[in-house]
Amino acid sequence: MELLKIYLLLPILCIFSFADGGSIGVNYGRIANNLPSAVKVVELMKSQGINRVKVYDTDRAVLKALSGSGIKVVVNLPNELLSNAARRPSFANAWVLRNVVAYHPSTTIEAIAIGNEVFVDTHNTTRYLIAAMKNIHQALVKYNLHDTIKVSSPVALSALQNSYPSSVGSFRSDLIEPVFKPMLEFLRQTGSSLMVNVYPFFAYESNADVISLDYALFRQNPGMVDAGNGLRYFSLFDAQIDAVFAAMSALKYDDVKITVTETGWPSKGDSNEVGASMENAAAYNGNLVRRVLTGGGTPLRPHEDLTVYLFALFNENKKFGPTSERNFGLFYPNEKKVYNIPFTAEGLKSYRDDHSPDHSPATGGEQRVSTGSSNGQTWCVASGQAGKDKLQAGLDYACGEGGADCHPIQPGSTCFDPNSLEAHASYAFNSYYQKKGRVIGTCYFGGAGYIVSQQPKYGKCEFPTGY
C-alpha cells in the first residue's frame, strides 16, 4: 500500500440486482505475533463463505491448510527473490516445483503474483520484473500448469502519471517502454489480468476537503461527469479503476482485464488520518462487496465483472507506519469480526449500510468538491428522464425553501421560454447550485439533477456561472 495523493473525483453506476456478479477474496497477511493457526484461519474463511485468498509468500503451513478447502489461492514470489528468478531460469523452475507443483491441485493455486508494488520498492527491483514473470511462466509451461495458473504483478496507483480525470489516465512515462508495454503484451499472450492495488481511503485522506465521503464510501451521491469521456461516476473506486483502464487503452491493450488485488479501509487511525473509523471501514467494505457481487463493471467497461481482494483478513500488530496500517483487518486475531459485513450474495440480502446519511430534496449531503471542467466551472441541469414528479418537486424546492432566483423563468421573463418543466427545473437547479458555491450534493434533487461542464443555453437564456 502507499499513501496516494490522487485527485480522483469521478465516480460508477451500479445495478443493485442479485445476478451473477464478480468475486470477492481476501488478503491473508501475517505480520503479527497473535494470529490463529493456518488451520483455524482456513476454517474461518470457509465459515464466512470466502472462496478466494491471496497470500504474500508460499508458507508451507498455510498452503497445506488450504489443501482440499476449495478456496482458490494467489501465492506470491516476494520482491527479494525477483533478481534470482530473473537471472536464473533454474531458480524459477526450482521455485515453482517447490512452492507450486508440490501443493497444486490439492491446494487450488490459480495465480502467482510476482513481487508486490515493485515500482515503489526502495531496493530497485523494477528492472528484474519482466524477466522474472517470463521465467516463472516458462517454469509453469514445463510442468503443464500454464493454462490453469496465471502470472501477473500487483501495481500501485502511483504507477500512473495522470489519474484525474479518469479519461486521461496514463502510465508513468519512464515505465511505459521498459515495463508496461512488455508486461501488458505478456498478460495478453498468457490470458492474464493486470493486478492493481486500489485505495480510495488514501486519496480521500489526503484530499478530504475536495472529495465527498459519500463518494468514497459508495454511498448515495449525485455523481460526477467526466468531461473527457462523457461518463457519469458515482464512486472513487470506479474512477480509479477506469484511470488504469484508460492508461491501458492508450497503449492499445483494451483486451487485458484487471484484478483488484488489494483494497480496503482502516477502522482506526491517528488523529491526522482523516476518515479512518470503524463506521467508514464498515461502509466502504460492505458497500464494495455489494457493488462487486451484484455484477457489472466500471463505466468504461460496464460488462466486465471484477475480482476484488479485500485488505486484509486480520489486524496485523507488527506492521510499521501509522496506526491505520495495523487496523485494516476484517477480523481481530481472536476471529471476531471488527464490524459486521457479508462476503456472499446470500449475506447481502439482509445487509444495509445503516449509517448512510439522510438526503434532503436538494443535496444528499453537502461536502465541497473541486469542479470538473477545464476552466474550473460547472453547472447543474435537470434530467428529463427523472420524471415529472421528481422534476416538479425539485423545482418547487429550489424556488421555495432553497432560495433560488426563479424570477427569470416567470412568464414574460428572459428564461420563460422554452416553457417546459425540464427547462425551468434546469434553470432553478442551477441557480440553487451556484448560490451554494457548487458544493457537491447541491445538484442532487432526488436524482433529478446532474452536473455538466459546458454552459447550458436555452434560446436566449444563458445560465449564470455564480452569484
TrEMBL record:
* Any one GO biological process: defense response
Which GO molecular function, any one, fits this protein according to its record?
A: glucan endo-1,3-beta-D-glucosidase activity
Checking Pfam families in the record gives: Glyco_hydro_17 (PF00332), X8 (PF07983)
Q: What does UniProt give as the signal peptide span?
A: 1-21
In which domain of life is the source organism classified?
Answer: Eukaryota
- Keyword annotations: Cell membrane, Disulfide bond, Glycoprotein, Glycosidase, GPI-anchor, Hydrolase, Lipoprotein, Membrane, Plant defense, Signal
Entry's Gene Ontology cellular component terms? plasma membrane; plasmodesma; side of membrane
Q: Per the UniProt record, which EC number(s) apply here?
A: 3.2.1.39
> What is the protein's membrane topology class?
Lipid-anchor; GPI-anchor
- X8 domain residues: 378-463
Signal in keyword set: yes
Cell compartment(s), UniProt: Cell membrane
Q: Where is this region: Disordered?
A: 350-375
Reaction(s) catalysed by this chain's protein: Hydrolysis of (1->3)-beta-D-glucosidic linkages in (1->3)-beta-D-glucans
Q: Answer yes or no on keyword Membrane.
A: yes
Protein family membership: Belongs to the glycosyl hydrolase 17 family.
Write the protein's name. Answer: glucan endo-1,3-beta-D-glucosidase
Which species does this protein come from? Forsythia ovata
